[in-house]
Amino acid sequence: MAKNNRGKALYKQPSRARGTCPVCLATRTKLLETVKKSDGTQLQVCKRCSHAATTRIDAAVANSSTIAFRRKHKKAFHQLQTSLLQYRT
């Protein structure tokens, strides 16, 4: 028997709840989980990052929709991001 209503709520969300995760920078993943940063702002993250450490969540880019990085650029972006975090502290 078919399940006609499976995923129906995703069609009502912008871009069907898919985007770039601000924590791990995975592209075209479902951003269904909501986490709070230590300053109180909320982020939509993927399932894998919903249980990430608070340091990774605080280091996340708040608006990842403007990031045009693909998988091949993620490593360089994370190195830049960690170096900026070390510089701030």
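^ that was protein a. below is b, sequence first then the tokens
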Amino acid sequence: MRSRALQTASRRAALPRPSTSPPIRLASNLSQRPHSDNVSFPGALKSAFSNKLAFQHPQEWTALPTYRVVDQHGAVVDPTWTPDIPEEKIVKLYTDMLYISILDIIMFDAQRQGRVSFYMVSAGEEAASVGTSSVLEMEDTLFCQYREQGVFRERGFTTKQFMSQLFANKNDPGKGRQMPVHYGSTELNIHTISSTLGTQLPHAAGHAYAQKMRKLQNPESKSAVTAAFFGEGAASTGDFHAALNIAATRSCPIIFICRNNGFAISTPTLDQYRGDGIASRGIGYGIDTIRVDGNDIWAAREAVKRARELALEDGGKPVLIEAMTYRVSHHSTSDDSFAYRARVEVEDWKRRDNPLTRLRKWMEANGMWDDVKEKDARDVMRKEILKGISESEKEKRPPLKAMFDDTYEELTPDLKEQMRKLREIIEKYPDEYDVSEYEGGLESLKEKK
């Protein structure tokens, strides 16, 4: 019986079936033409034949240019550029950058006081995050790394939301499961940040491919792209290369935004790679690429605005932006950057090419800002952030039961048993485990009938 069934299945499998997959491109489509002057082969379709043996030497190639709109002094250097947003929007972009710079200083100090366990600042990189975010649509899905506070703020992340995550209280959507600065927001269409470098990149490429498939199934749906943020250190991971390759070969509508801030923790760029930055890698994968001055918010906006148009052309394609923006801060509160770079180098960057100062000079030259507005804005934001810290510290932590939730639709028997044993231990040693700071206390661990 079993043998006859297998024979029947084999015969059925051998029958021709209607194809539902796209036609396969035959190798003959790329065959070498007689007497051709070029190579006709996948990956080198227009490579001219040469009778001269010559290796290509990287040092003989000119580095890719860096696009900027406004220089360090706030002067416009692109004569074709004019602001595309009204004054109130420009002021908002500046105050978003200012907010992040103040938040970073206060939270860095809060970590040193032992009020939070960890923090990462984005000093020097505010324009790269706020500027890029400001021209993306809310329908565009974002995958951030851990220095995109400006992206969250520009999209509408509130002080309470920042603090709830940083202090891991009951209002934290992540329920205290992530370490500080690993924000996420379903409402703002931003995936939760992961500590592991580069893992967001193949996820983002896959998401962009899904966007493309949805658009093919429903052409009337609104067009959207994916934006993936990362540092040049993450570009040394295998995930970076896998993401760019699948995005290029599948023509995914995605913008890869690299913050090249000069250091991967304590490793300077000269020790990370020998090529022409990260932008040259995009070209190697056949991806439209640009390098911009990451301290110039206008250059960041113009680049992403055009990149979004390109990403949606012809059904979708990837774009890579490399934003050059020096990291003036320590890598994190666990790092002392003066152990591997000179203090004077950092101070020079702060003084000579600060992204906030650059935008402020331009705004002052155009009558949008002055010292009084600066002082008032700083005072308001500082009070708001300090109040947010005070209020968040008073909130209870997520219920203990939250550590067992959300893996399965319903608690499995083994999770219920783990929860029961945890409750017994806490009940047995109440002086060792104070659970009063958790929402619901010990009651949250009792299984509801």
